[in-house]
Amino acid sequence: MFRALIRLYLLTIVTYSAAIYLIPMGIIEVFHDRYMNYNIEQSRGLQSLIVRQYHSRPVERWSDVTDQLARDFAPLKVQLMHRQDARYTPDEERLLEQGKPVIRLGEWGLMEEISSPLNGQLAVKLTIPPDPLDMNLLYWTMNVLIGAALLGGLLIWLRPHWRDLERLKVTAAQLGRGRLEERTHIPPSSNIGSLAAVFDTMANDIEHLLNQQRDLLNAVSHELRTPLTRLDFGLALALSEDQPAASRERLQGLVAHIRELDELVLELLSYSRLQNPAHLPERVEVVLDEFIDSILGSIDDELENPEIVIDVVLECAVERFTLDPRLTARALQNLLRNAMRYCERRIQIGVKVCAKGCEIWVDDDGIGIPEEQRARIFEPFYRLDRSRDRATGGFGLGLAISRRAVEAQGGTLTAQASPLGGARLRLWLPT
Question: I need a labelling partner for 410 at 20 to 30 A (CA). Which of 209, 239, 273, 404 fits?
Fold first, then answer.
């Protein structure tokens, strides 16, 4: 908003400056004849006085008359000159031939020069000098003060608009962070009251729809777990009995499918819980190396390939950092599982702490993530083409859950290219 105000002020200043210069020029050009006639009427007495002074003396004494008039009319400049030397235009020469004065206008339509014919060869020219420096300064000071007054009035008028727009901006930002209960609380009397009302109505609709979606997801997930548990128990009982080898194999396949469904339901429940803004993150100070070791220990049993090497790099000036251990651990576990799924032989987890926050990254030496898909991999149920087979597993919810867990703490989760050749998933938590 501040930048918008600066742009408005600059536009106002430039427009005002251009108007001061261009509008008078345009008006003078349009009403040139009226300005000429006005100045002729205003200077008629002065012209008559000067011409009479010359005609009262012989031509030989006109130079003395010029000197006397120059002293009397100072700082105005009086000149006696031959008409052909004055470089009059044909129209001006025609006026002098008719015995009429020639006037040249300056700024604001004011008279700058006036020439009066004395005879067929000579004319007297009276030149009005420009204003002195101090008067020019006073003139521009007045214009600046007028401009400042206009800008002050503009600021007074804009202040309530600015305040309400800032409130609208803050509300939109809060909604974007998942605080669906936020509203603008802008009164209808405001100049943007109608806009705020429409915005609040939209926010109400979004909150209602998301709550419905979350409640439906929770209800369906809970209802699914009961029959899945029963099926799992029933198949386990069937497997405990003597069965032909083919039947046992089919039953074991069904058990695997049921447990896969149960895992999907758990993932859905986790994702749904992270969407609830009522669950505020817990802030706990942890020892970073011990925290990372505990996460690695929790997924150690899931490491199917014994040839995969996991390195830990700690670049910490301090050993402790305040975070939500449950949410952060869940996010890192999913990132490590993703790396184990697609790496060749090496995974690296790094930690770097600075004054602004904590950076944790997970690198792998796999084939990486195409740049055009790095933003989409955090969407629910989105999976790269190469990960749609059962060999790699997953439901497309792990990275979405990780991002939710990080964003709930005010952090970010992004995908980059890894120095190892594969993908880098970078987690950032502010201080």
Answer: 209
